[in-house]
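Dear colleague,

Thank you for sharing your sequence with our group. We've completed the structure prediction you requested, and as agreed, I am returning the results in plain text so they can be pasted directly into your records. Please verify that the sequence below matches your submission; if there's any discrepancy, let me know and we will rerun it promptly.
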Amino acid sequence: MRLPVYERVVLHREILKSLESPERVQTDVRLNRLAEVMQSVSGVDVRVRCRKTDLVRARVVFVFVARAEGFTQSAIGNFLNLDHSTVSCIEKRMRDALSLPAAYRDYIALYNQFTTARL
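Please find the predicted structure tokens below.
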């Protein structure tokens, strides 16, 4: 006897939830904490999909610090609902900002605020 479609979907979701690794849950908790600190410093939520200047700047700093913390590009991308290649490009922008601080003063200022607030 086959289960009805709805019950199969519910069962499938429960199985997937039980297979979710504790590492993934821990990663989401740590990234969530970083996002909360960034929101308190910059006033924007980095998980929002928008291209406003303040949000982009906050997202760039967030990604760079998360990568420095040891998170993978895929984990950050999953958290921000972005592709890992987008995360790579975002990370490159912050490396450029650090190599040319005169041209990226706003990024450097936000980075300094964020890293000191996180401590």
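Summary note from our side: The CA atoms of residues 46 and 58 lie 6 Å apart.

Kind regards,
the structure core
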